[in-house]
Amino acid sequence: MPDSSSAAGITWNLADLYAGVDDPQINLDLEKCARLCTDFAARYRSLFETAGALTAAALETALREYEQICLIMSRLGSYAGLVTAADTMSDAGRRLEDRIQQQLVDLGNQLTFFDIGWLEVPDETAAALMGQPALANYRHYLAASRRYKPHTLSEPEELLLNQKSLTARTAWTTLFDEYVASLEYTLDYQGEQRTLTQPAILALNYDPDRELRKAAQACFFAELSRHELVLTNIFNVIAQDHALNDQIRHYDSPMSSRHLANEVAPGVVEQMQSAVEANYDIAHEYYRLKARLLNLPKMATYDQYAPVATNLPTCDYATGRETVLAAFARFHPTMRDVAAQFFEKSWIDAEVRPGKRGGAFSASTVPSAHPYILLNWTDKLRDVSTLAHELGHGIHQYLSRKQSYLNFHHPLTIAETASVFGEFLTFDYVMETTSDPQVRLGLLCSKIEDAFATVFRQNVLTRFEQSTHAARREEKLAAEEICDHWWKANQALYGDAVDMFEPYRWGWSYIPHFIHTPFYCYAYVFGELLVLSLYRMYQEEGTAFVPRYLQLLESGSSATPEELLSRLGANIADPAFWQKGLDVLREMVRKACQLSDSLKR
Question: What CATH number was assigned to the domain covering residues 14-167?
Answer without folding.
Answer: 1.20.140.70
